[in-house]
Amino acid sequence: MNTFFYRPNSDKFDHKIIHLAESMNRIGCTSNWVNYDVPLFQLLNEVNPEVLFCHDDQHSSGHLALAKRDFPNTKLVLLSSQLSKTEEKNYDAVVYLSSTHSNEPLYLDYLINENHIDGTHKKEFETDILFITDGIDSNNQYARSSLDSIGNKFKLKMYGENNLKSIYYLGGIHRSLYKDVIASSRAVILFNDEWKNTVLAVGKIPIVYRQKMTNQFEFSNYKELEEACDRVFSTSPSKQYGKTYTDFCKMLLEGLSK
Amino acid sequence: MIGIVVDKIDGSIGNHVMVRELNKLADKVPCFVFTNDVGRLNVKNKFTILQQVEALSHPGTLISTSLITSQVVLNSLTPKKKYLYLQNYEWRNLDRFNALQLHRVFLNDEMDIIVKSDTQKKVFSKLFREPSKVIYNWRADDLIKVI
């Protein structure tokens, strides 16, 4: 099945969409990315996708209605980041990205990405504490100074899209290597939940930022972060499994086929 | 025989120390500096300055001083020994780069690492591998031991 995703034109790109696209490939679909400004009918005429994922306010309702009429075999799915509920009549399904819709059956939470759980421990990536810089603002001084302090005390390595201008930031890596990087660490510092369940599924410890701590591996300030990193060495975590992005894809496609 | 590959040689403070120490070393062994950018030096050099391309056929110990000059050293087939003398954490100032680009230099078995201080040694060991030597500010007495 040929699925197409629009690459959003904003830096504030919900990374759940990347995980969703990657997981589509696992169930025999082909995920393709197109630029945000590719006109709808040009895309539909040229590639005739079976599933097309769109974003809020990207296409007018008139265009969508015409598209549904002229391309009945193409399923249109909205990836909605809005806090209020979206009118669904123009779409075959709406996937909700905002946690305000957590009760919706098609609410996409941060799940396990199976593409990143079967990595190999590699010496060149070996570290105690890992930080993946995707999704973090390169100019976030607080994050940089906190992580630098952690790096001075522990064995810390940072990889990812965004250069934090720290000596512990060691560059970008190909997405296919994220699983090896995670497998080569003991714990992963996270400023949101994007990688949390994937890290747990590999048997590593996620140390997650929260405004208010609720367990020993969460932090709301630097001191708590340092204490959480200290606890890593006296903990032997086990793998924790849960819902995966693949499960979500199957559920979505099943719904679309009805 | 020792060869140092640098991006630039001039009268700046960092280079001044290197020139001073190489001048001391040149009294004992042949010394070469390979560079494509020669500025005005504050003191007369007792070592030979050649173009970087000449480093490709240098037969003695060859030492690079940056990621870029390491490419020259790694591509040279004739040196007896190869080193990277880490001057600073230069990757911090790079804009976009890939981790494998650092691994190809810093984790390359063909080349040993020299650092300037125990602090650098500690940091580099955590991030990449244990440096083979600590030489503070190009000290001639220590440099001669790597030949």
Describe the strand arrangement of the main beta sheet of chain A, using strand numbers.
2-1-3-4-5
The assigned structural class of chain A equals alpha/beta
Low-confidence parts of chain A, pLDDT < 50 over ≥5 residues? none
Number of strands of chain A: 10
The rough form of chain A would be described as elongated
Q: Biggest chain pair contact, residues each?
A: A-B, 17 and 18 residues
What is the averaged pLDDT score of chain A? 90
Overall radius of gyration of chain A: 20 Å
What is the beta-strand fraction of chain B? 15-25%
Number of strands of chain B: 7
Account of the 3D structure:
The complex is a heterodimer of chains A (258) and B (147). Chain A is an alpha/beta fold and 258 residues long. Chain A is built from 8 helices and 10 strands. Chain A has helices spanning 16-26, 40-47, 61-70, 141-153, 178-183, 196-202, 222-231, 245-257; strands at residues 2-7, 30-35, 51-55, 75-80, 93-96, 129-132, 156-159, 187-190, 205-209, 218-219. In chain A, the strands form 2 sheets. In chain A, strands 2-1-3-4-5 form a 5-stranded parallel sheet, covered by helices on one side. In chain A, helix 6 (196-202) links the parallel strand 8 and strand 9 (205-209). In chain A, helix 1 crosses helix 8 (245-257). With 147 residues, chain B is an alpha/beta fold. Chain B is 31% helix and 18% strand. Chain B contains 5 helices and 7 strands; from the N terminus they run E-H-E-E-E-H-E-H-E-H-E-H. Chain B has helices at residues 13-26, 67-75, 99-106, 118-127, 140-143, and strands at residues 2-5, 31-34, 48-50, 61-64, 81-85, 112-115, 133-134. A 7-stranded parallel sheet of chain B has the order 3-2-1-4-5-6-7, sandwiched between helices. In chain B, strand 1 (2-5), helix 1 and strand 2 (31-34) form a beta-alpha-beta unit. The mean pLDDT of chain B is 94. The interface between A and B is medium-sized, with 17 and 18 residues.
